[in-house]
Design the sequence.
């Protein structure tokens, strides 16, 4: 009988030690993943807002939805860059929903004056060799957005050439660039209507699922 109790106690101890170890490893892994996500996000943000800001941009963020400009119920995150409190730029994280193979995740850096600092694709499922020229590493196409605004070009120009606009399409692949151009135009339109909301809303890092 005594032996039975001893075995049961030993088994219990092993279970407790095992669970504690696993929980610890889990927490460490989660921390590492979060740190890695922050690094990637900062690196991506750095590509479109290389100039100076002095706030903690990853924490200075809000999340919101707006079906008119960011369809399909997507959550948009706005990261605000400020210098001594003054708005420098906002980076919107959102998706173009009319890609050939689903959503195209984008970051658009918009200066306080409404002009684009730059756009980057962070994730997509477009076809390699056709739609993937939207990636900065695959072609220079995405760089054409820098410096553009709602008045440069005027509205008809905010389309691919096939549709009478100023943006190149790719050979045999018009759907992908068309989706990105339209999504960026809508993001700029949102910015022009909601600039004060974007810069003045109190940061809510906990309310956003983004890193
Ligand atoms: C297997 C396959 C994959 C394709 N992938 C893409 C894509 O990723 N992006 C895209 O714009 N078009 C893609 N297309 C082409 C589109 O179906 C469509 O023909 C094209 O976007 C229209 O552009 P065009 O008017 O310049 O031909 C793909 C077509 C096929 C058959």
Sequence:
């Amino acid at each position: 009988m005594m032996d039975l109790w001893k075995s049961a106690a030993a088994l219990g101890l092993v279970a407790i030690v095992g669970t504690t170890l696993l929980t610890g490893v889990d927490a460490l892994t989660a921390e590492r993943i979060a740190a890695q996500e922050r690094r990637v996000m900062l690196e991506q943000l750095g590509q479109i807002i290389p100039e100076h800001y002095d706030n903690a941009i990853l924490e200075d963020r809000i999340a919101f939805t707006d079906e008119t400009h960011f369809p399909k119920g997507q959550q948009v995150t706005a990261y605000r860059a400020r210098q001594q409190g003054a708005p420098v730029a906002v980076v919107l994280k959102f998706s173009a929903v009319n890609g050939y193979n689903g959503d195209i995740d984008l970051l658009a850096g918009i200066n306080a004056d409404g002009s684009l600092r730059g756009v980057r694709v962070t994730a997509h499922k477009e076809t390699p060799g056709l739609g993937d020229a939207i990636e900065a590493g695959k072609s220079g196409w995405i760089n054409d957005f820098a410096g553009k605004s709602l008045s440069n070009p005027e509205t008809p120009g905010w389309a691919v050439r096939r549709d009478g606009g100023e943006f190149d399409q790719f050979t045999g692949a018009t759907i992908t660039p068309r989706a990105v151009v339209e999504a960026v135009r809508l993001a700029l339109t949102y910015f022009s209507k909601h600039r004060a909301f974007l810069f003045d809303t109190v940061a809510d890092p906990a309310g956003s699922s983004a890193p």
User: Anything to note?
Assistant: Helices lie at 2-48, 175-200.
